Please model this.
Amino acid sequence: MPPTAEPCIKPTPAQRLPGAVAAGSRLAGPWQVDIGPSRRLAAAVVGGHALAASAVAAAGLPLPAALVLLLVVGVSGAHCLRQQACVSSAGAIVRLEVDGHGKVGVQYRNGYTASGMLSGSTVVGWRLTLVRFRIDGDYLVRTVALLGDNCSATPFRRLRTGLAWQAGAALRS
Model:
């Protein structure tokens, strides 16, 4: 991806100052993160699906039912690995941008961009951040898992700080 890519969200001048944040502040957003493959996320996906497969095998189901469930677990694991951990499918999100007002812009591997709004269930942690959002006109809430190994450290830290600041501002109002 070229480093001079256009932002997914183009803020109007009125949106550039969220609350009391100064225009030159890094907390004013938008916060943009380029997403790449993650070994830690791949290990978690493989481990979780292996645990699910062992639970199906230990359940004592009839052989046809167990085989169908194992097939479903295997297909789910392959899809999660390709879309989330390896970021290799056309529908994988490769860029995430969040502004100071909760607007989200995403860019998929195939070049398609979409925008939406943050969900209130976004989780911000030290090693793991789960950004949950709803694309405009879509019913489903989507989740992007960000770890330290699938994005650059500085944009990841700014996004975490901005999301935590936004959550604190929402609680104060």
